Amino acid sequence: MSYVVGTAGHVDHGKSALIKALTGIDTAHLPQEKKRGMTIDLGFAYFKHQDGTPVGVIDVPGHERFIRNMVAGVWSLDMVLFVVAADEGWMQMSTDHLKVIASMGIDNVTLVISKSDLVDDDMLALVEEEALEQFLEIAGFIPDSVVVSAHQQKGIDELRQHICRKLDNHSNDARQQTAVQRQAHLYIDRVFTVNGVGTTVTGSLCGGEFHVGQKLILQPSGREVQVKSLQSYHQNIETAQPVSRVAIALKGVKKKEVERGFCLMASKESGFIVDEVIVRLDGMLFENKCRNNSEVEVAFGTFNTLAKIFVFKGTNLARLRLKEPACCFWNQRALLIQHGGSSIINCGAVVWGGEVAKQHRNKLYDLLMAMPDQPAWEDYVTINMSLYGYAKRGDHQLDESGYKACGDWLFTEECYNNSHQMLESILKQEQIDLSVNELSGKIQLPMNVLSALLQQLVEEGKLKQSGELFSLGSGRSEAQLSPTAKQILERMSQAEKQGYEADKEKIPGAQKELRNLVRLGFAVPLEGKIYYEKALYDDLVNDIIEGREVNERFKISDARERTGLSRKYMIPVLNRMESDGWIKRVENDRQVLRAAETALA
């Protein structure tokens, strides 16, 4: 199993030196970093776990001006090494960094007292005691602590063993909980071009595997891209495992079309693609107040953008109207940063994505406020069911009893039945086949939700599908027919009133498929092995019967005039109508047995 750990702590407290001692890798890659001796952007390294698997290490900047880069570095971590220099002790930015760690929901933290060679044992004890007190006061727990000197390699082997032991004991449960809620995804932290390879991105892979050749969705654009190659810790691989640092060469996208903060996803349905979110604020770690209609900066994953904030009176809920669209996940941690500065205003969890209609807002706010402090995916489903009558199903472990499953969506029985009735009413009223897009506007259901519902209704024989169009009727959908049956049906459609003459067509297996098409209600057989499309036959019946009373007689010439059929096809059609009980033959005429309003019932 792969892991990723990261550093946190005040600037110049020895984080980069510690990583170099642990891994043998200098994480400074920018000229400014080497010149100033300070981490500005994220740095990356790794060492080998005791079982031989790599442990990725992210070097997070400590200076307050680069707080956004810190958030981008810690979002995916299995563990944090919180570094405090023995010669300086706890500093203001140590407090700020610990607040960030706590606000991101990370509790697998080890306190590392660095530069131990610069002080005596009494000072070491004082620094450690103060740091542990700060942890208890700010984060609510006391972490393990390790004393090291990167300069003298003192305690480095012990720290490495400690990291491996903590990862093995802690990560499984926490990672499984996250994987239940989020499928394979990677927030991009770097974008560049490699000669001979093309557009390449890096990030921490979470929630599932990526494979060479796999097609992924680049959000928030929704663009489909393909994995050309994968590299992890300087090794070319076929499959990338979570959680690990991964470099991905992408096919189907140019470098200028990808940005830091974009998210690669295995499933399009996995997250929210929104320009508006509701965040449930913690309100405990930070004293700064969020002013209504003010501009703040919001950061989650490796993404950050400006946003207008609206705090709901009497609640800890805030609506954020993002300046640019983003990809986020339900219950994902987010930080609010002062616009134009580095002060953290507040933090919280994303509890809703997308704009909410005014008629639903008050009810939604009540439901969100009633959620437990540690919500599960079931709570999100329950809120959706209460609000709309449907919710995303996905791969989550849910008790689905009492719900109607339609693909990736669950419906209440009431919503399912009401929607079915509305669809039947609309299709009957319009008297034409309609697409998902057309029906979505009429029934006021999102297209992805309605598509799942329509497919379920088709499978249950309550609707029929022809291409992208849906209509009333039972039987299987045209989309479910065999390739041979589809070929026959297409030729039948092209023949129109000339009819499909089976003896003249040389299609292997045609007779069996024709019988199946008749049985499923797609075709009507006439004398002489002539077949009409069912819809065409129904139209001809209506043309002949319309306006006539029961027991009224009509001549063959009248029927030909109404339908435009030649005698070759007119007689077989009339004979079929007689066998179906519409008419009966009286000498050379035909007598109506059923009225026109029942013809298409």
Write up what this structure looks like.
With 601 residues, the protein is an alpha+beta fold. The strands form eight sheets. It has a six-stranded mixed sheet with strand order 2-3-1-4-5-6, sandwiched between helices. A six-stranded antiparallel beta barrel has the order 7-8-14-11-10-15. It has a six-stranded antiparallel beta barrel with strand order 16-19-18-17-20-21. A hairpin with a 3-residue loop joins β7 (185-194) and β8 (198-206).
Number of helices: 16
Radius of gyration based on Cα positions = 33 Å
Mean pLDDT: 86
Largest sheet: 6 strands, mixed
Helix fraction, binned, reads 25-40%
Name the shape in a single word.
elongated
**Alpha-carbon distance between the termini?**
62 Å
Q: Which ranges are low-confidence, i.e. pLDDT below 50, for 5 or more consecutive residues?
A: 29-41, 62-66, 175-180
What is the total tally of β strands? Answer: 33
Give the neighbour order of strands across the main sheet.
Answer: 2-3-1-4-5-6
Helix-and-strand structural type: alpha+beta
Give descriptors for this structure.
601 residues, alpha+beta, six-stranded mixed sheet, six-stranded antiparallel barrel, 33 strands, 33% helix, elongated
Task: Annotate the secondary structure layout.
Elements: E1 3-9, H1 15-23, H2 31-36, E2 43-48, E3 54-59, H3 67-74, E4 79-85, H4 92-103, E5 109-114, H5 121-138, E6 144-147, H6 156-181, E7 185-194, E8 198-206, E9 210-211, E10 215-219, E11 223-232, E12 235-237, E13 239-240, E14 244-251, E15 263-265, E16 272-281, E17 294-300, E18 303-311, E19 317-328, E20 333-338, E21 344-353, H7 358-369, H8 377-387, E22 390-392, E23 403-406, E24 409-412, H9 413-430, E25 434-435, H10 436-443, H11 447-459, E26 463-466, E27 469-472, H12 483-495, E28 500-501, H13 510-519, E29 523-526, E30 530-533, H14 534-545, E31 553-554, H15 556-563, H16 567-579, E32 583-586, E33 589-592
Parallel strand pairs: 1-3, 1-4, 4-5, 5-6
Antiparallel strand pairs: 2-3, 7-8, 7-15, 8-14, 9-13, 10-11, 10-15, 11-12, 11-14, 16-19, 16-21, 17-18, 17-20, 18-19, 20-21, 22-24, 23-24, 25-27, 26-27, 28-30, 29-30, 31-33, 32-33
Helix pairs in contact: 10-11, 12-13
